[in-house]
Design brief:
single chain; about 100 residues; two-stranded antiparallel ribbon; elongated
């Protein structure tokens, strides 16, 4: 599939698609601290804090991507630089018959 650039295998009985789950380098998202406003940051960013142990600062990437799309090219460029492509994997599912 990868050699041919395919993302799915045609089948009447099954759904077979290639799926890639990306991760993001948390440190590379730091410039967004100056791009996003307070309300966006409250949805996207959790600063370092202590619970029973110290919990490192982290970005909520789904919220980051949504806010970056609203902000435009500068924020989207930061997100793209932080993206770490995941390994492709196949997702199989039996098609529902009505």
């Amino acid at each position: 599939m990868e050699e041919r650039g395919a993302t799915a295998i045609p089948s009447d009985e099954y759904v077979c698609e290639m799926e890639v789950k990306n991760t993001y380098d948390q440190a590379s998202l730091t410039p967004l601290l100056e791009i996003f406003d307070r309300s966006e940051l409250s949805k996207c960013y959790e600063p370092e804090h202590q619970e029973t142990i110290t919990v490192k600062a982290k970005w909520r990437t789904q919220q980051v991507i949504a806010a970056a799309k609203k902000r435009g090219t500068t924020a989207l460029a930061v997100v793209e630089r932080a993206r770490i492509p995941g390994a492709p994997r196949l997702k199989f599912q039996r098609r529902e018959t009505n």
